[in-house]
Amino acid sequence: MFGYYFKLGVRSLRRNPALTALMVLTLAIGVAASMSTLTILHMMSGNPIPHKSEQLFVPVIDNGQLEGYNPGSKPPSQSTYMDAMNMLKAKVGERRTAMYGVGLSIEPERHDLGAFNTQGLAPTHDFFAMFEVPFRFGQPWGELEDKAGADVVVLSAGLSERLFGSANPVGKMVRMNGFMYKVVGVAEHWKPLPRYYHVIAGNGQYGNEEDYFIPLSSAIRHEYDHNGSMSCNKRVEKPGFQGRLESECTWLQFWFETTSSAQRNDVKNYLDSYVSEQRRLGRMKRNVPPELYNVMEWLDYQKVTGNDSRLRVWLALGFLALCLVNTIGLLLAKFSVRASEVGVRRALGASRREIFNQFLIESGVVGLAGGVLGLLLAFGALALIAMSGDSMKHLAHMDLPMLAFTFVLSVTAAVLAGLLPTWRACQVTPALQLKSQ
């Protein structure tokens, strides 16, 4: 009977095209508005590395001074160079990495390309395995290159194609900020959303992929300035880059990786011991216990998905509810003019349940049509959102789960909207309708 009622529902769409078009359009606009905002929130708040998010941890250590301290204030989100180097040497966990963003000028050997500025990252070698960076050519540098501060580079696929075309550039040289770097690998296109591994950076939380990766020790040796934020709670006593390295300024991001989430306590115990030791040396005067955050906790701590995004979603869902109220009114009008039809069917033996199923399936057909149109409108809305900025173009696209959810939402909304009109249609008294004919 479902197939028969579905055909009846499709035919009824043509019975009153103006009213049907108005219902479908009303539902489609509500679905498009809600789905476009839900898609943005879904991309912003998704788990960027779900199979490993509970094995990657960010330490947060409060190294601030007592002067002007307000208990309960948020500690710095990054690490000092001193703390980062100490944690790297501690050999705690499976892997460790420290990093900071750099912006360098590249001077291509190709005569048709002039010098141009780029944005990249200066991590230690464990970075690539920790965050599962895919490779097109070559491989990451190793521990020996980290210790030597070697001038080696892993290019992004985009930068490699710009400099060398489709050829394998491993072993070739690239001039960066006046120094020659040897290409050891080319990373495949890699752009996790959000950019969880380094949310405090010039590229932003949803920015473009890194143009390149160079060893942290090489960036330090060349005294490359950082591309991102830096917090200094105490005056830097020594001038120049060395003064920054010895200061209490926080400007490096640090990550631990464990073999399982159960090893989290081991890392936390190490941090407690480390902070206690540093306190005995005259640092960490605020006596604030260190914290450890896994990937999703870290994104929440950094408020990557802000309250304003959630508010927009609630407003969009409220608009969808308003569209449903209008759809209910239109369905009531559509079903009320068919009272005589219902009366005849009831007189011929149709039960209220059969009438209810027929009209509810008809509402579902309206929802399916509204879903198709709403999906097209949602794609259009996302295309307009993508044009608003570089960060939004990486977020404004619909994946398969959201695509399926659009149809489910549309049909479910239409069925819910059709419950009252369908129930009213079932209450028709056959005798009264037959008498009025």
UniProtKB/TrEMBL annotation:
Span of domain MacB-like periplasmic core: 20-269
Coiled coil: none
Topology of the protein relative to the lipid bilayer: Multi-pass membrane protein
Keyword Hydrolase: no
ABC3 transporter permease C-terminal domain segment(s): 316-429
Pfam families: FtsX, MacB_PCD
Compartments where found: Cell membrane
One Gene Ontology CC term in the entry: plasma membrane
Annotated TM spans: 20-41, 313-333, 365-388, 400-423
Chief subcellular location: membrane
Keyword Ribonucleoprotein set for record: no
InterPro entries (UniProt xref): ABC3_permease_C, MacB_PCD, Macrolide_Exporter_MacB
Keywords: Cell membrane, Membrane, Transmembrane, Transmembrane helix
Highest taxon in the source lineage: Bacteria
Gene Ontology terms for molecular function: transmembrane transporter activity
Name the record gives this protein: FtsX-like permease family protein
Organism (species): Massilia horti
